[in-house]
Design brief:
Distance between the termini of chain B: 90 Å
Pfam families (chain A): Med18
Order of helices and strands of chain A: EHEEHHEEHEEEEH
Subunit structure (chain A): Component of the Mediator complex.
Subcellular location (chain A): Nucleus
Oligomer: heterodimer
Order of helices and strands of chain B: EHHHEHHHHH
Shape of chain B: elongated
Structural class of chain A: alpha+beta
Helix content of chain B: 40-55%
Family (chain A): Belongs to the Mediator complex subunit 18 family.
Number of domains of chain B: 2
CATH class of chain A: Mainly Beta
CATH class of the largest domain in chain B: Mainly Alpha
Protein name (chain A): Mediator of RNA polymerase II transcription subunit 18
CATH architecture of chain A: Beta Barrel
Distance between the termini of chain A: 22 Å
Number of helices of chain B: 8
Strand order of the largest sheet of chain A: 1-5-4-3-2-6-7-9
Shape of chain A: globular
Largest sheet of chain A: 8 strands, antiparallel, barrel
Chain lengths: ~270, ~220
């Protein structure tokens, strides 16, 4: 279980160039391009899941997050052009040059008969499975604190080798999917800063939810939730970054309710 | 030798100075204008004097003087404008006891209403420099041109100000400068740029996070 301390903000598309070079100079490191595909899963609604357990305690149904890196050569075949400037080409709903079928294949296994070879498909079949709690409450918090439990699925066996089939055997079905494209900066004191764009993927179509700009997220991961010293250290590092960027990018604590991945049908506590 | 509107003056011009009523002389207005003009001529003379010297003064001192002159010019025009009605309706004539023959030169200078030839030349020169033929351009067009000129000036000034505010000009030194004169590091002159060139927030972050964590509504 990791504890993620974070602060968020947003910038517009026009500021991207200046912002990346500013952060690049500030961190002393070049930006790292990344892209994730994320599938959120929810407990199968056809099951009649008890709302309380035997001790009459409420059972909270939570979504599962399934995440996988999307190979960047799917987006830009030319390796020499694959840098942070590439993100400027993606300001629309459309992901030009990216075949959405790829993510479908990743989830359900390839439909291409030539690639059905099981041994080959297994080679990069690992997924990151995580489940996140609602960020900690309290009005005098300086950063958002969220605990995340994470594990890696290296391979899925069973009757069908696809990851979706595998998780459906645990009672989880796909809810929604999105693709994140962005750059990550490795700031000092193990603070990471991400500028990213997010596309919702529904029915073979993509829709950008960060239109006109980039989501900015600065975070520190603390390995153990009981390690107060590291938590304080991380909090201070984040607050220092917030102070350093104040007036340019104003990092703020996100609303904890917006980071709640529990199912809505349960009353909020 | 000046008098407020001739209507209340005697038909027979007063023969002696004692009989003349000076109450109607717009002394206050004239004095105000005179003071402003005195300042302006003084400044102009000083500037002319400095420009004719062998070594030119520093550009910033010249600029300061020019801006003072512009302020004074502005002050003259506002003062004249303020007393416009009074000065317009004032008619000037010499009193009967003025030695007109002895001081003919002075009298013609004082009573002259036409511009002197040099002034006419300046005005024509200015008109030619503007590049607008006033004979063919209608007053509305001239006004329009003036307005657009003002707008361009305003824009340029605003642009300059904004660009200036985007950069920090003071307190940054190279390593070489610092090693040459270490006392530079002793005091901190650095002023961060006050530019308003900060990124806008094109969307609400919480809404995006909500979609990411809870799916599309």
């Amino acid at each position: 279980m990791v504890l993620q301390l974070s602060l968020v903000s947003a910038i517009d598309d026009e500021s991207y160039d200046l912002c990346t070079s500013t952060l690049c100079n500030l961190s002393g490191n070049p930006p790292v391009l990344f892209s994730h595909f994320t599938a959120m899963l929810k407990p199968n609604p056809t099951f009649d899941i008890e709302q309380t357990n035997s001790k009459n305690q409420l059972i909270e149904q939570n979504r599962l997050k399934l995440c996988k890196e999307v190979p960047l050569d799917q987006l830009e075949p030319d390796g020499s052009k694959r840098d942070y400037e590439m993100l400027k080409n993606y300001q629309d709903d459309k992901l030009d040059g990216f075949n959405l079928q790829v993510v479908e294949d990743m989830l359900h296994g390839s439909t291409d008969l030539d690639r059905m070879d099981v041994d080959e498909a297994k080679s990069d079949d690992s997924w990151i499975l995580s489940i996140a709690d609602i960020p900690a409450a309290g009005s005098n918090r300086k950063v958002s604190t969220q605990s995340i439990t994470e594990n890696t699925i290296l391979s899925s066996g069973g009757s069908s080798p696809s990851i979706i089939a595998f998780l459906s055997e645990f009672g989880y079905v796909p809810d929604y999917q999105f693709l994140t494209l962005g750059v990550k900066f490795n700031m000092n004191h193990s603070v990471y800063l991400e500028l990213s764009k997010v596309w919702l993927i529904q029915g073979g179509e993509s829709k950008q939810i960060t239109k006109g700009g980039f989501l900015v997220k600065a975070f520190v991961n603390v390995t153990k939730g009981t390690d107060i010293k590291s938590i304080n250290h991380g909090t201070n590092a984040l607050l220092n970054l917030q102070k350093e960027l104040s007036g340019y990018i104003d990092l703020t604590i996100p609303d904890r309710k917006s980071m709640d991945s529990r199912l809505e049908n349960l009353s909020d506590i | 030798m000046s008098q407020r509107s001739p209507s209340d003056a005697d038909v027979g011009v007063p023969s002696s100075r004692d009989e003349f009523n000076f109450q109607h002389v717009p002394a206050q207005a004239l004095d105000a204008v005179r003071m402003r003009f005195a300042q302006l001529t003084h400044s102009l003379a000083k500037l002319k004097d400095e420009m004719s010297r062998a070594d030119l003064p520093q550009w910033y001192s010249l600029q300061a003087q020019v801006s003072v002159i512009l302020t004074q010019l502005q002050s003259v025009t506002t003062t004249i404008h303020h007393f416009e009605e009074l000065l317009d309706s004032t008619v000037v004539y010499p009193l009967a006891n003025f030695p007109t023959t002895a001081h003919e030169g002075l009298l013609t200078t004082l009573l002259r209403k036409k511009n002197i030839p040099e002034t006419d030349a300046w005005i024509n020169d200015a008109k030619e420099t503007v590049g607008i033929d006033l004979n063919t351009t209608s007053p509305e067009d001239v006004n329009k041109l003036l307005k657009s000129d003002e707008q361009v000036t305003k824009w340029a000034l605003g642009f300059l100000k904004e660009e200036h505010s985007n950069y920090a000009f003071q307190g940054l030194h190279t390593a070489q400068e610092l090693s040459n004169s270490p006392q530079l590091a002793n005091y901190d002159e650095y002023r961060p740029s006050t530019g308003k060139n900060v990124p806008k927030k094109p969307f609400d972050v919480d809404t995006v996070l909500k979609v990411v964590h809870q799916g599309p509504a």
